[in-house]
Design goal:
Distance between the termini of chain B: 41 Å
Strand content of chain A: over 45%
Radius of gyration of chain A: 13 Å
Helix content of chain A: under 10%
Radius of gyration of chain B: 14 Å
Largest interface: A-B, 22 and 21 residues
Oligomer: heterodimer
């Protein structure tokens, strides 16, 4: 089975712009979660989608949003980018193995 | 509140040495899962092991072994005969169900450097 894929792998944006990141889960997995990883804050949970519905959300401002499509692919959007949004954004999919998340390679976002 | 502590920020060992990565967790739940993930420089978090709260059996997989002790709320990870390819950041994580939803808390990670 192919693993979790994320595109793009690297992204450079400027403050005020918006960005959309994409994640394709492992085939058959219906849950997709997004995390932000920074050196200062570590791994922080953004949100989880299951069957096109957001079922859990972390403590991030409304500039961070996401959605999931009927094929379980998910997108994450960040509007009005700030310097502090520079991070590695990781997507994880989960299937039937209890609570076990499988991660993609991440998208490294740099905001200038 | 759930919490995962990885007190070792960085560890350096010489190749072929054994190394143990510590993980201590806090939870009020009786049902939970514990995980270890490896993050090489490429960035992807690689799943290594899952252990549920009712299974305190230690596990060995090749050069890797895990020691789960509920009495001390610890889930330590040992690499035997370390190799340069083991160099990575290792994360311990705790997963609980809160209000029907999964809540995952990651530790801050331990950076392991294996010197040839």
């Amino acid at each position: 089975k192919a693993g979790v894929t994320q595109t793009p792998r690297y992204l450079i944006k400027t403050r005020g712009q918006q960005v959309t990141l994409s994640c394709s889960p492992i085939s058959g997995h219906r849950s997709v979660s997004w995390y932000q990883q920074t050196p200062g804050q570590g791994l922080q949970f953004l949100f989880e989608y299951f069957s096109e519905t957001q079922r859990n959300k972390g403590n991030f401002p409304g500039r961070f949003s996401g959605r999931q499509f009927s094929n379980s692919r998910s997108e994450m959007n960040v509007s009005t980018l700030e310097l502090g949004d520079s991070a590695l954004y990781l997507c994880a999919s989960m299937g039937t193995a209890p609570d076990t998340q499988y991660f993609g390679p991440g998208t490294r976002l740099t905001v200038l | 509140a759930q919490k995962v502590t990885q007190a070792q920020t960085e560890i350096s060992v010489v190749e072929k040495e054994d190394v143990t990565l510590d993980c201590v967790y806090e939870t009020r739940d009786t049902t939970y899962y514990l995980f270890w993930y490896k993050q090489p420089p490429s960035g992807e978090l690689v799943f290594l092991i899952r252990r549920n709260s009712f299974d305190e059996q230690n596990e060995i997989s090749g050069r890797y072994s895990w020691n789960f002790q509920k009495s001390t709320s610890s889930f330590n990870f040992t690499i035997t005969a370390s190799q340069v390819v083991d160099s990575a950041v290792y994360f311990c994580a705790l997963s609980e169900r809160a209000g029907g939803y999964q809540k995952v808390t990651f530790g801050t990670g331990t950076k392991l450097q294996v010197i040839p």
